[in-house]
Design brief:
The protein is mainly β. The chain has 2 helices and 11 strands; from the N terminus they run βββββαββββββα. The strands form 3 sheets. A 5-stranded mixed β-sheet has the order 3-6-7-5-4. The chain has a 3-stranded antiparallel β-sheet with strand order 2-1-8, with no helix packed on it. The longest helix has 5 residues.
C-alpha cells in the first residue's frame, strides 16, 4: 500500500494538506509587489533568489476570510512543472504520511467535489482536505494522479 506524504498547513481554523514532493521551501512572510488587474487571490510577485514567483493567498482560494498578511504568516513555495509559486498560509504544523486507505476522493457529481481538492484524508478523528496544487498554481489537469489509488 502506497502512502501520501504531505505538509500540513493551517488556513484559519482548518488544517489542509499539500503534497510534500511539490514543496520547495517554507519561508516567512515577505512583502510582495502587487500587480494591477490580477485575480484577488494573487497578492503579487516575489523575487526569490533571482527567480520571480507569484504569491497566491491560499485563504482566499479556499473560501476563507483573508486578513492583511502578518509577519507570522508563512509562504509555502511549491513547484508546478518546474516553476515555483508561493502560497500564503496562516501556518505550517507538521509533515505527515497518510495511507492510501485513509484517503477518500469525491466523485464528480458529489456535493463536496472541488477542483481545488484532490481528496480528503482521515487523520485521527479529523478530515483534512488535500489541496490540488495543479489547479491552484496552474489551472491544469495533473499529468499523473497526485494521490495513490485506494486499495
Amino acid at each position: 500500500m502506497e502512502n501520501f506524504d504531505a505538509l500540513l498547513v493551517t488556513l484559519g481554523d482548518q488544517a489542509y494538506a499539500l503534497p510534500l514532493l511539490q514543496i520547495q521551501e517554507i519561508r516567512g512572510w515577505t512583502n510582495v509587489s502587487p500587480l494591477p488587474n490580477c485575480d484577488a487571490s494573487c497578492l503579487g510577485l516575489l523575487n526569490l533568489r533571482g527567480q520571480v514567483l507569484a504569491v497566491l493567498d491560499a485563504r482566499l482560494l479556499m473560501g476563507k476570510p483573508a486578513p492583511t498578511p502578518k509577519p507570522q504568516d508563512v509562504i509555502v513555495v511549491a513547484m508546478l512543472e518546474n516553476k515555483p509559486f508561493g502560497l500564503l498560509v496562516d501556518g505550517v504544523s507538521d509533515i505527515i504520511s497518510v495511507e492510501a486507505s485513509n484517503i477518500t476522493r469525491a466523485e464528480t457529481n458529489e456535493a463536496w467535489s472541488s477542483k481545488l481538492v484532490d481528496g480528503v484524508a482521515t487523520i485521527g478523528d479529523k478530515l483534512v482536505p488535500l489541496i490540488s496544487l495543479q489547479h491552484i498554481g496552474g489551472g491544469q489537469e495533473p499529468a499523473a494522479p497526485a494521490l495513490p489509488a485506494a486499495a
